Amino acid sequence: MQKYSVFSLVKNALSNHENWDLAWKDPTPKKEYDVVIIGGGGHGLATAYYLAKEHNITNVAIIEKGWIGGGNVGRNTTIIRSNYMHDDNALFSEFGMDLWRRMSQDLNYNVMFSPRGIINLAHSDAQMNTYARRGNSMRLNGIDAVLLNREEVREIIPMADFSENVRFPIFGGLMQPSAGTARHDAVAWGYARQADDMGVDIIQNCEVIGFDVSAGKINGVRTSRGDIKAKKIGLCVAGSTNILAEKLNMTLPIETHLLQACVSEPVKPVLDKVVTFGAGHFYISQSDKGEMVMGGDLDGYNSYAQRGNLPTLQHVLTEGIAMMPFLSKLKMLRTWGGIMDMSMDGSPIIDKTHIEGLYLNCGWCYGGFKATPASGWTFAHTIAQDRVHELNAGYSLNRFNTGHLLDEKGLGTKTWIS
Amino acid sequence: MLHIKCPHCGLRSQNEFSYGGDATVKRPELGKEISDKDWDNFVYNRKSLRGKHWELWQHLSGCRQWIKVQRDTATHEIFKTLKANEEIS
Ligand SMILES: Cc1cc2nc3c(=O)[nH]c(=O)nc-3n(C[C@H](O)[C@H](O)[C@H](O)COP(=O)(O)OP(=O)(O)OC[C@H]3O[C@@H](n4cnc5c(N)ncnc54)[C@H](O)[C@@H]3O)c2cc1C
Ligand SMILES: [Zn+2]
User: Fold this and answer.
1) Cβ separation of B48 and A400 shorter than 8 Å?
2) How far apart are CA A204 and CA A22, in angstroms?
3) Would the CB atoms of B21 and A253 count as touching at under 8 Å?
4) What are the pLDDT digits (tens) for A114-159?
5) Is the dihedral of CA A308, A314, A318, A323 positive or negative?
6) ipTM of model
7) B26 touches A at CB < 8 Å
8) Does domain B1-25+51-89 have CATH number 3.90.1570.30?
9) Ligand with smallest separation from the Cα of B11
10) % of chain A beyond a pLDDT of 90
């Protein structure tokens, strides 16, 4: 594989950039692999990469029904953070933060990780108290957290509405300075390129349409391009989890819902943090191109549509304008949506299943982009060793049966509200 | 924008309704031995079908009645609506 560097850039400039290697190949599926990963999103690609890199398992195929990066990994708003209160979530996410910090070097691919910090705004005394509690929990787990008062927030984001007569005045906020954003496509492509180089087959335009299970064991998958055998299969299909679960006669604590996002026209640099509104669901950051990147609520009813409805967008942007009135002057450039695997407690599942050789990775809700490296790392471990790692032990499927829920927000089982 | 035909009020915009999830989920019967599995299925496990899906909506800013709606979760086409006490056939 050609290494990407300033030297290879200069060298290839001399031949008009016509001689770059393909970043990954387009192989025909083999009859059998040691491991098949279903879904070429961030999690599937990262899993294959860590299977090869950490466990020396390279006879691996990623089966993707469309093109890699066409799912949620290419549709999200790229917020990366570990500002969780519960230990399982905090330790898992902070492990991921370490992988993010090294990712561009590890993958020899500039993922433009930008630890610019995130501020969750508080709009009441009660909210300040819960933020103080969450911040303390974070610090006990070695994660950076700073509680800001109103004046401190004003210094950082003076463009927010600090006038006196507002419905949701800003009381302060909780900041995680090390949180940030990254370029989502580069994450998918970077993992794909390295996995391909280590021998993983990335098979695109190939849909898994069924499974070969006998005597409680998985033997392979049926795909639109023929049957493929494998003794170990990892499911990483995010918003399509319920569809494949049905083919396995499994009913999961997951519902599929739609989340939208949008960007404004590009403007000059105005916001150098990720900011979330605390009195509803709205968050914003500014991309390197200058667009304001915004998102918020789910559309609110089960959906596989991959495109959203205007009432939700209007609602979300109303919150945005309440928080930062200057947004009302901007033109909207693009809106889009992605379908998401909403779990019943808001936390993911990375686990074995009752079928031998079948492994489950789902339930990422709004927060699966930041989890990409840690999810791939722990899922690869779970598949390779046939046992969960301590980092994903809390993300078990049977926690819904035993009552050990990881309900970070305390919202219960109405996934369309969480 | 969805347009939902409330069986009590007629065709109204989605903005007047709030969502209540899968309408086929049944609470385990009281007074009977109920297994953990039954409770799991009632509280947590959902089919979340792609295609025709019976679901509950409440006409919150209208008659405030709960109703059943059959909608395609991929196209949002609405096929049928029923009153809450009408059985899904
Ligand atoms: C609008 C929006 C904003 C978001 N913002 C954030 C954010 O700011 N921060 C954050 O951390 N997370 C965010 N998320 C969530 C995050 O994007 C997802 O949780 C995460 O990307 C899911 O994992 P993935 O990348 O593997 O999924 P995907 O990229 O969706 O990968 C799943 C893949 O499986 C494939 N597939 C499905 N069925 C089959 C089949 N039968 N056979 C073969 N392949 C199949 C799909 O085509 C798809 O490519 C956001 C999501 C959306 C939609
Ligand atoms: Zn009505």
Assistant:
1) no
2) 15
3) no
4) 999 999 999 999 999 999 999 999 999 999 999 999 999 999 999 9
5) positive
6) 0.96
7) no
8) no
9) 2
10) 96
